[in-house]
């Protein structure tokens, strides 16, 4: 793929290597532009350029005589890209279309078919003149159209290329679906979704097992959120590591993995930021206490969260057991409460599956669990797996209470 380097080589030393690399850069850039633009006439012109330069690279002996020509083709490809992307219908002006047509009919246009092992300088010079004339027409046209300089166009193209590349290589994980059993949180789901839709950052705080991650997954799948953020909804989990294992690199690698990005060592945060800036994005950082309490790089990680949250296109939803949050983001802090008694009963019966005769007794049992969702779930599973009758359940509960929860908890982990 093209680098930012300009193709011309100036040093005499290693000139052959430089011209080879300049040719490769030009060919890559031209091919990339060719794939990106919708205009068939311009595509044809770029194919010719890339054909000429490939032939020069592979067969011509006096490659160094083509340095200027390679530079011209390289510049023209940017101008073509800008000219097609600057107009709303991506059409080239009549003036430019005619110039392309002329150029294709000119000597440069037939060059790829007439190339032999060496080309005399006069012939190359005549092609260069054709291209110069064309560049002049194009530049004038573009100046009128966009008022941007070539260097700016190159920088814009580089940004475009990066985005296109990350889009095509993105194979990030699909976002998790809504939990199959999820009760009693309608108001919270509504509240959190509303905040996120307005790009207001949210921190869901609460003790372990209170239901923060389930709530985040439910929000992630709300129709309004799906419509607003589409494929740029990312759920990044940190619940399978502890604070001693997280570093700045690990923190960003997780995000890069879910976004489907290949993060280089140079500036991974900016690769992630560029991707998130390409469209409205929802970034869910689940079990954030793991990285906010990280043994290494704690401050650097918090700064990275701050900088992701500062992106205009990105809203962050974070779940955490800890109250210590990155300080430069204006968080809407929501303390996730225990389930309401009715929802707690619903959560229990959905797993237990047996008829419950004395609802008030079960209710008080669930109260003794503080209507804590994870505890309810564990108890209901234990009751179902052991096929306890309603009475057995109460007897066992009265006898073994916390033991029971711990046993199931261990077997589930
Ligand atoms: N709204 C709900 N309805 C039914 N069950 C729920 C609900 N919320 C949570 N649970 C149950 O509680 C369990 C723990 O929930 P969750 O993983 O969301 O907790 P958490 O607050 O993220 O905990 P941790 O801090 O350990 O990550 C879930 O696996 C599920 O069984
Ligand atoms: Mg969680």
TrEMBL record:
**Signal sequence annotation:** none
Taxonomically, the superkingdom here is Eukaryota
Membrane-crossing residue ranges in chain numbering: none
Q: What is this protein called?
A: Uncharacterized protein
Q: Which organism is it from?
A: Hericium alpestre
């Amino acid at each position: 793929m093209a680098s930012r380097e300009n193709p011309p080589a100036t040093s005499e030393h290693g000139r052959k290597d430089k011209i080879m690399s300049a040719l490769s850069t030009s060919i890559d850039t031209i091919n990339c532009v060719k794939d990106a633009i919708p205009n068939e006439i311009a595509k044809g012109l770029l194919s010719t350029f890339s054909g000429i330069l490939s032939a020069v690279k592979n067969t011509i002996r006096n490659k160094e005589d083509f340095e200027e020509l390679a530079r011209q083709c390289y510049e023209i490809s940017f101008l073509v890209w800008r000219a097609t992307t600057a107009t709303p219908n991506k059409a080239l002006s009549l003036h430019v279309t005619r110039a392309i047509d002329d150029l294709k009919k000119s000597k440069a246009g037939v060059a790829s078919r007439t190339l032999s092992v060496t080309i005399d300088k006069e012939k190359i010079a005549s092609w260069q003149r054709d291209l110069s004339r064309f560049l002049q027409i194009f530049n004038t046209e573009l100046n009128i159209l966009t008022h941007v300089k070539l260097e700016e166009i190159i920088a814009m193209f580089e940004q475009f290329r990066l985005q296109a590349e990350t889009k095509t290589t993105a194979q990030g994980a699909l976002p998790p679906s809504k939990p199959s059993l999820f009760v009693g949180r309608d108001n919270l789901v509504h509240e959190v979704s509303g905040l996120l839709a307005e790009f207001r950052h949210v921190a869901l705080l609460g003790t372990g097992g209170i239901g923060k991650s389930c709530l985040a997954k439910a929000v992630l799948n709300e129709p309004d959120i799906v419509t607003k953020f589409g494929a740029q909804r990312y759920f990044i989990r940190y619940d399978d590591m502890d604070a001693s294992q997280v570093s700045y690199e690990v923190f960003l690698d997780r995000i890069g993995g879910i976004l489907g990005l290949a993060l280089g060592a140079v500036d991974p945060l900016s690769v992630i930021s560029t991707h998130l800036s390409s469209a409205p994005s929802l970034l869910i950082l689940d079990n954030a206490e793991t990285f906010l309490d990280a043994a290494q790089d704690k401050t650097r990680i918090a700064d990275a969260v701050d900088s992701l949250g500062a992106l205009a296109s990105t809203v962050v939803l974070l779940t955490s057991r800890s109250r210590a949050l990155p300080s430069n983001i204006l968080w809407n802090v929501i303390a996730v409460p225990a389930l309401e008694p009715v929802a707690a009963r619903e959560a229990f019966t959905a797993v237990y599956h047996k008829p419950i005769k004395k609802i008030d007794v079960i209710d008080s049992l669930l109260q003794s669990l503080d209507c804590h969702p994870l505890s309810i779930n564990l108890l209901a599973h234990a009751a179902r797996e052991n096929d306890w009758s309603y009475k057995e359940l109460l007897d066992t509960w009265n006898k073994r209470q916390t033991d029971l929860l711990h046993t199931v908890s261990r077997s589930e982990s």
